[in-house]
Amino acid sequence: MFMIEYKDIGWWYWLVTALLLTIGVLGNELGFILAIGLTVFQLIHYVIREKGIKAFPVQVRFWYLMLLIVAFPGGMQWLYWVPCIGTWAQVIFGYCAMARLVSLWPWNREEPFTLKLVINTFLSRPVRGSVRQGFAGSR
């Protein structure tokens, strides 16, 4: 049930990001700023590592960064609870809702977009490696 992947650099990025977001939602806005900065760094790292911006891990990190930026203005900071809880789910259980959402976009899948695909994508168990294994474009 737990998927603690301490040998993976990506897991460490997500752990530190989750801690920073937790600091932010507990009242210290600096946590949000540092989480955004770390996500920018992580995005650059993965662009270099994956040798391009179209790679799935890069797409996930890009849209995660967009969520963090959209949530930053004062009246929107309540929205940080979503990535905070979601990032902890990724760190502890290996469940990444953002990766599942990104896997449904037309350029990341071969199947037709159906309710069954959405249900299978969001309700399937976490897997080691890419969320694209077994659904949403991997067949």
What labels would you give this structure?
139 residues, mainly alpha, 59% helix, globular, disordered C terminus
Walk me through this protein's architecture.
- With 139 residues, the protein is mainly α.
- It has one domain (9-123).
- The chain contains 6 helices and no strands.
- The longest helix is centred in the N-terminal third of the chain and has 21 residues, at 30-50.
- Residues 135-139 have low confidence and may be disordered.
Question: What is shown here, in short?
Answer:
The protein is mainly α and 139 residues long. The protein has helices spanning 9-25, 30-50, 56-70, 81-93, 97-103, 115-123. The chain is built from six helices and no strands.
Given helix and strand content, the structural type is mainly alpha
Number of strands: 0
Strand content: under 5%
- Report the biggest beta sheet as strand number plus sense, adding barrel if it closes: none
- H/E element string? HHHHHH
Distance between the termini: 25 Å
Q: Low-confidence parts, pLDDT < 50 over ≥5 residues?
A: 135-139
Counting H and I runs of at least 4 residues, what is the number of helices? 6
Mass-distribution shape: globular
Number of domains: 1
The pLDDT mean sits at 92
Quaternary state of the chains: single chain
Classify the helix fraction into a percent range: 55-70%
CA radius of gyration: 15 Å
